[in-house]
Specification:
The structure holds two protein chains of two kinds.
Chain A: E1 8-12, H1 15-26, E2 35-39, H2 67-74, E3 78-84, H3 99-116, E4 123-129, H4 136-150, E5 157-160, H5 169-202, H6 208-224, H7 228-242, H8 247-250, H9 253-272, H10 275-282, H11 289-313, H12 323-341, H13 357-374, H14 379-395, E6 398-400, E7 410-412, H15 426-439, H16 443-461, H17 465-482, H18 485-496, H19 503-519, H20 523-535, H21 541-554, E8 558-562, E9 565-571, E10 575-577, E11 581-590, E12 596-605, E13 612-620, E14 625-633, E15 641-654, E16 657-672, E17 678-683, E18 687-689, E19 693-702, E20 705-715, E21 727-728, E22 736-739, E23 750-755, E24 759-767, E25 771-785, E26 789-804, E27 808-813, E28 822-830, E29 837-846, E30 850-851, E31 856-863, E32 868-877, E33 888-895, E34 912-918, E35 929-934, E36 938-940, E37 944-953, E38 959-965, E39 971-974, E40 978-983, E41 988-997, E42 1001-1004, E43 1008-1012, E44 1015-1019, E45 1022-1026
Parallel strand pairs in A: 1-2, 1-3, 3-4, 4-5, 8-16, 10-16, 18-26, 36-45
Antiparallel strand pairs in A: 6-7, 9-11, 11-14, 12-13, 12-15, 15-16, 17-19, 19-24, 20-23, 20-25, 21-34, 22-24, 25-26, 27-28, 28-32, 29-31, 29-33, 30-32, 33-34, 35-37, 37-41, 38-40, 38-43, 39-41, 42-45, 43-44
Helix pairs in contact in A: 3-4, 5-6, 6-7, 7-9, 9-11, 9-12, 12-13, 13-16, 14-15, 16-17, 17-18, 18-19, 19-20, 20-21
Chain B: E1 2-5, E2 11-15, H1 27-42, E3 50-57, E4 60-66, E5 72-77, H2 82-101, H3 113-126
Antiparallel strand pairs in B: 1-2, 1-5, 3-4, 4-5
Classes of the chains: A alpha+beta, B alpha+beta.
Chain lengths: 1027, 128
């Protein structure tokens, strides 16, 4: 049965144009799409019989079996007569140039079909196809005459010149056909309505069958007319009438069920036929909420109808035809599933399986399998088929179709004859026919098809993994029945890997897979599945293990698998140092019920250089743990962690055949740098005196046996001394010297070939600069650990030594430093240390614009502990502009030995040292401003006098200062007492103050203070105040 | 066939309680396995733990009960006995809770033997 009913247009003749006409009819909008039938001019339509008389009418059934087919195929709603001017094979001959002759031919056919469609409103249109002929001018004149003579509609004649698709022609034809079809079906509905009302009046008894029939037919015509709502009304009415209790008395259940099946299918088709919504979804347009709701409501209604129909009309399980039950269910589920499949995904509700087409296909598949079990797999059924086939052949019987839908088929000598089988009831005949027809059904491919469709649905549209496994299992079993063992095997292999933990299912599947792999010589698979079966403790474990060993012995097989052997690996410690031994403990468990031996263990690490293959052979007993250890040394300094990635336990019962059980792990150990094997300590006095021997002791404490120890000492140049500091004048740049134990200058370091016990290394050092020396001491050595671990190590330590002068220097400027004026500098040298030293000379060396022309010389003047010597030097600063810039040195020549003369010769013995000490620590600064005050010497009490203050800038810089006159009780002061001022470079500023003396006597004038930054210069004078 | 299925979809406990007359071997487990998809879809939408009959395979029904911890109790049976099955599930659920509180057993690995006896007792009481 077609899902969607469409108006039928019958095209007569015109094979040349058939394709164009087809396109015209089919490729219409969803609403106005039509179906077509193509026949030739010799075809004869069934003429309508006269309206039946209901007098003494006794209906034999509800609906004739052939009625729907007749309606859809043999009764046209509209006819198109195509006349081909060029003489197509199926066109009447129109070769005569005489128009009258042509007209007569056309009219003859028009009249013939009109006559056959008498009693029905069937519009006939004539389509004249000119092709290559050039008669259009003549024809256009003649056509009106043709319409008149043939009583054809004024719009019913079409002249096609070259192509049907040209101009407005397609639109006109389409409209004419559509209107014709609609009016035809409308007329049919009207006719049926009249007939129904007449039957109601004329029929004396129960006319329920007639009523159902007419309602169904009206629904059918309404559907053809594309009036879906009206069709639904009529169908529902008919379906409801079928359930009327009075119907049971007059209609057989089978007939009732068949009619109900037909009606319910038509209702579902109409409900789920929403072409506009579907085309919108195809074009990726969103549906509005109303449209969505309509879609869901229609789907729900059709599902509800399906469920209630199944419950109401389900075939009972009768023993004679046990397959009938499954057949009916299977057909319904598959048919509705197919209908639902055409719906968009929007209607699929994940939690409602009734909205899944896959669910219907799965059920249909299962029903077909059940149907197969009671038919082609049942020996009794097969025997009865053979028996009945023989009976029918012997009796030369034929199967006779019933006239009415749902009535039983019968046996007859000839399909047209009356029933002739004597002594056999109609139901018996019907059952025999059902059995024979069932034997013709190919259940297996049909079941396969439906299960496939279900699997496809549950794999793609609404993914359900477990249902897919079940479907795959069903498919596998069907393939097995079909004899396709490879596909069966493929499906089962797929399932077995997906259902871990479901041991009962796995056991069943593995039985099949093992036997199949064994039969098809798939040795690798055989072993894999045997192992799997052993893992789940299959009931035949022992036999399987024996067979596994035989297979391994008899073949060259290398298999990689996982499971069965479990292992836990753990490093003994979480952190290790390089060059230290590390222990990895592994505990193996055999989950099988049989012993595995020999097992060769291989380890694979994140750093492949540590991998070790087959390093130990063990045997694993069931249920017992086997512990092994692997000890190794990490010798790579760049390695920060080592991860054990996998363990492979190789079961190798025969040479060259093995099973590798792979155990993945992520056990790791963190690797840190090796610990120093030498611990040095440095001993020396807190500070060294420059120019004097200083003993530095290095204590070496080895933790292992060390060889080739080299000690390098060098100054860390990261902190160069940037400040000027005291030093000893020397001929070469190094400001320190280190001697080895042989009194040789340490240049290439100290080398010790072998050291196993603590050792002390005294080193003599001399420092020539007053500063904090920062040395780096590098120890390079080779470590010998145990007997096989030998590696080189290098460590650097920092050694700080502070060197200072052997005496204290105190420099003090005795007056303010002013340019071009002699200034006295006091130098005091104090001996704070226990040893005495002998002074030879003290001198000042200028490095900027100043000079000191004198130097102090002594003949080895002894300065004992706690003594000091003080000297004064007269210095003159020559730089007027920047008098404070006094760069230079104090040179002190001294020695520890009183007999040593002034010398720069150095030796490791007593020397005369010339110390160069930077001049620092000014006690005063030069004030850049000159203050001059001009004031008289005598004034009377109450006399106003002036005090003029002139401030001169001695520098070239502009300076900002403040002048403050301090208050005094002897004078009243007028003018600015506190003023901020600016004085230009080499300029001057004059301030005038008015004073009045208030008491007689020699009185101090108010103090004048000039503040420049934080330095203040003051002036204060005296005047005589007379009474 | 009665199964208790854990969170990872693997059976934790299995018992044959005589609710299916015809022995169809591992198919029973397969039916329950496939019905898990339906249970997983229906359970979040249902306010009851007892989901009634969730699936049907020929003449066999699959009833399900889902605990708050998503442990699924599944029973394959061939006769309808909604109330009996419901009571059976409730009693087994109580026993599971008791077994879980037993510190000596990890029910996700192995149920204590007393549990098995209790399940069979409940089956006798409500199902047979």
């Amino acid at each position: 049965m077609m899902q969607n009913l469409r108006p039928i247009v019958t095209v007569i003749g015109g094979q040349r144009l058939l394709e164009s006409i087809t396109k015209l009819v089919i490729c219409n909008s969803q609403d106005q799409r039509m179906d077509y039938e193509s026949v030739d001019f010799t075809y004869n339509f069934d003429t309508r019989r006269d309206a039946k008389s209901f007098d003494k009418y006794n209906p034999q059934g509800i609906l004739k079996l052939s009625w729907t087919t007749k309606c859809r195929k043999f009764i046209p709603a509209c006819i198109v007569l195509v006349f081909d001017w060029c003489g197509g094979v199926d066109s009447p001959i129109l070769e005569s140039p005489d128009w009258k002759h042509k007209e007569a031919t056309i009219l003859k056919h028009v009249r013939k079909f009109k006559e056959q469609c008498k009693g029905r409103l069937v519009k006939i249109c004539v389509l004249c196809y000119l092709g290559s002929t050039n008669e259009e001018i003549i024809l256009e004149e003649k056509l009106s005459q043709l319409k008149k003579n043939g009583e054809i509609d004024s719009k019913g004649v079409f002249l096609v010149k070259h192509k049907l698709e040209e101009g407005e022609m397609p639109g006109k034809i389409k409209k004419y056909l559509w209107d014709g079809c609609i009016s035809h079906y409308k007329d049919e509905i009207d006719r049926l309505k009249k007939l129904k009302s007449r039957a109601h009046k004329e029929l004396s008894g129960n006319f329920m069958e007639i009523q159902i029939r007419y309602n169904f037919k009206m629904g059918f015509y309404s559907e053809l007319k594309q009036d879906k709502d009206l069709a639904l009304n009529f169908y529902k009415k008919a379906y409801k009438e079928l359930q009327d209790p009075t119907v049971n008395q007059i209609i057989l259940l089978d007939e009732k069920r068949s009619v109900a099946d037909l009606i319910v299918h038509r209702i579902q088709c109409v409900l789920l036929n929403l072409p506009n919504l579907l085309s919108k979804l195809v074009a990726n347009q969103a549906l509005n909420s109303n449209e969505k709701q309509l879609l869901l409501d229609r789907t729900k209604e059709s599902i509800g109808l399906f469920k209630s129909h199944i419950l109401t009309y389900k075939v009972s399980k009768n023993i004679t035809c046990a397959f009938e039950y499954w057949k009916w269910l299977g057909e319904h589920f598959s048919r509705f599933g197919t209908l639902l499949e055409s719906m968009p995904e929007e209607v699929y509700e994940k939690d409602n399986f009734w909205t899944h087409p896959g669910f219907y296909f799965q059920a249909a598949g299962v029903y077909y399998i059940m149907r197969m079990k009671v038919t082609v797999e049942d020996t009794e059924f097969l025997q009865s088929v053979v028996n009945w086939q023989g009976f029918i052949a012997n009796s030369s019987l034929r199967i006779k179709d019933p006239v009415f839908l749902g009535k039983p088929k019968t046996l007859a000598q000839h399909p047209c004859e009356a029933d002739v089988v004597e002594g056999m009831s109609l139901s018996d005949q019907s059952n025999i026919i059902k059995i024979l027809e069932e034997a013709e059904i190919k259940h297996l491919p049909i079941a396969l098809e439906y299960l496939f469709r279900a699997l496809k649905f549950y794999k793609t549209l609404v993914p359900m993994t477990k249902i897919c496994s079940e479907l795959s299992y069903m498919l596998a079993n069907l393939y097995k029945k079909k004899g396709d063992y490879n596909t069966d095997y493929a499906y089962k292999s797929e399932i077995v890997s997906k259902i871990d933990g479901w041991e009962m299912i796995q056991e069943g599947l593995l039985d099949d897979l093992i036997s199949c792999a064994d039969n098809s010589q798939k040795v690798q698979d055989l072993i894999q599945y045997t192992l799997k079966a052993l893992e789940i403790h299959h009931k035949n474990s022992d036999l399987m293990f024996e067979k596994l060993n035989n297979t391994l012995t008899g073949n060259l097989i290398q298999i990689n698998t996982c499971g069965i052997i479990k292992a836990k690996a753990k490093f003994e410690v979480k952190n290790i140092t390089t060059y230290s031994p590390v222990v990895l403990n592994i505990s193996f468990t055999n989950t099988l019920l049989c012993s595995l031996s020999p097992i060769k263990v291989s380890l694979f690490f994140s750093d492949p250089s540590f991998n070790c293959e087959n390093f130990q052979t063990i045997s694993l007993d069931p249920g017992l743990n086997k512990k092994i250890s692997y000890k190794f040394v990490i010798k790579s300094l760049s390695l920060q962690e080592l991860v054990l990635l996998k363990i492979i336990a190789r079961y190798e019962p025969a040479d060259m055949s093995w099973i590798d059980f792979e155990i993945k792990t992520h056990t790791k150990v963190l690797v840190t740098a090796p610990t120093p094997q030498l611990s040095p300590t440095f001993n020396h006095l807190p500070f060294a005196l420059i120019g004097e021997e200083h003993i530095l002791t290095i204590n070496l404490h080895p933790y292992s046996e060390l060889s080739s120890l080299k000690i390098m000492i060098y100054e860390d140049d990261r902190n160069p001394s940037s400040q000027k500091s005291s030093c000893i004048l020397r001929n070469f740049p190094n400001n320190y010297m280190i001697f080895n134990n042989e009194n040789m200058i340490l240049e290439d370091g100290i080398f010790i070939s072998h050291i196993t016990s603590p050792q002390t290394l005294p080193l003599k050092t001399i420092f020539y600069q007053e500063k904090n020396y920062s040395f780096k001491v590098k120890f390079s050595y080779t470590v010998h650990k145990d007997h096989d671990i030998i590696y080189n190590s290098e460590e650097v330590y920092v050694l700080d030594v502070s060197a200072q002068l052997p005496f204290q220097i105190l420099m003090k400027w005795m007056s303010i430093i002013e340019p071009l004026k002699p200034i006295v500098l006091n130098i005091q040298i104090t001996n704070d240390f226990p040893l005495a030293f002998y002074l030879s000379k003290i001198a000042l060396v200028a490095e900027s614009d100043w000079k000191c022309e004198e130097e102090k010389k002594y003949y080895n003047l002894k300065v004992a502990e706690g003594n000091w010597i003080s000297e004064y030097f007269v210095v003159k600063v020559l730089n007027i502009e920047n008098a404070c810039n006094i760069d230079g040195f104090l040179l002190v020549t001294w020695s520890r030995d009183k007999n040593v003369q002034d010398s720069l010769i150095e030796s490791n013995g007593s020397v005369s040292n010339i110390c160069k000490i930077p001049i620092v620590g000014f006690s005063s600064v030069v004030f850049p401003l000159d203050i001059e005050v001009i004031v008289g010497s005598e004034f009377f009490i109450g006399q106003v006098f002036e005090m003029i203050v002139v401030i001169r800038n001695k520098t070239k810089l502009d300076l900002e200062a403040r002048i403050v006159i301090e208050e005094t009780m002897w004078f009243l002061v007028g003018g600015g007492e506190n003023a901020k001022f600016e004085v230009k470079g080499v300029g001057e500023k004059v301030f005038k103050f008015c004073l009045v003396g208030v008491e007689a006597g020699i009185k101090d004038l108010p103090k004048v203070n000039v503040n420049l930054a934080e330095v203040t210069r003051s002036w204060q004078g005296k005047v005589m105040i007379l009474p | 066939m009665f199964l208790i299925i854990g969170k990872n979809d693997v059976p934790m406990y299995e018992a044959s309680l005589g609710t299916v007359k015809k022995d169809i071997g591992h198919l029973n487990q397969f039916i329950i396995h496939a019905a898990l998809d339906i249970v997983d879809e229906e359970a979040p939408l249902s306010s009851n733990m007892y989901l009634k009959t969730v699936d049907k395979f020929n003449d066999l029904y699959v009833s399900a009960y889902v605990t708050a911890a998503n442990i699924r109790l599944m029973l394959v049976h061939d006769t309808k006995n909604e109330d009996g099955i419901k009571n059976f599930f409730i009693e087994v659920h109580e026993n599971i809770v008791k077994a879980m509180t037993n510190p000596l057993f990890d029910v996700f690995r192995n149920f204590p033997t007393a549990f098995d006896a209790k399940v069979k007792q409940s089956a006798k009481k409500f199902l047979i």
